[in-house]
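User: You have something folded?
Assistant:
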Amino acid sequence: MLFLIKGIVLGFSIAAPVGPIGILCIRRTLSKGMVNGFISGLGAATADSIYGLIAALGISAVSTFLADHQFYLRLSGGIFILYLGYITFKSIPAEAAAGTSSNRLPSAFASTFFLTITNPITIMSFAAVFAGIGVGTTDETYISSLFLVIGVFTGSSLWWLFLSAMINVLRHKFDQKQLKLVNQLSGLLLTGFGIFSLISI
C-alpha cells in the first residue's frame, strides 16, 4: 500500500505541470467536452505507466532500445506536436464542437499516447525516481513495482479527471469568438513546444 500511495503522488506530480498534453486536454475539453479531454489525458497516463513499468521491472533490452533510438523518437514527437499546433490554430470552434461523437475518443487517446511514448527521457526519469524510493529489480520487489505503476496510472488519471472537470465547468462561459482565441493561443503554444522539442534533441 505504501508503494501504491507513492505511485499516486508521483503520477499526479508528473501529470500536473502544464505542457503540450495539458494544453491539448484543456483545448479539447473546451471544444469537445469533458469526456474527450479526460480521454486525452488517459493516453498520456497510459504511456507514463508503460514507461514506469519498464523502469520498475528493469527491462534493460527495451530501455536500451529506447535510449539508442531517442533521437528519432523525439524527432517524430516534435514534428507531431507542430502538426497538432497547426491544426489546432486553424480549427474553427463551431466545427470542433460538432465533433463530439464517441468515434473521436480513440483518436484523442492515441494522439496523447503517441506524444508521451515518443519521449524516452521519461523512462530515465522513472528509473531514477524509482531507485530513489527503493524499488529494485529482484523477484521479491515485483509486487511492489506493480503497485507503484498502478499508483502512477491512478495519480495521473486523477489529475486529468480533475483538470477536465474544472475546465468543463468554465466551458459554457466561452462564446465562439473566445473559443477561436483559445484555439489560436493553444496552437501557438503547441507550436512553441514543438519547436523547443526539436531544437533540444
About this structure: The radius of gyration is 18 Å. Residues 142-171 form the longest helix (30 residues).
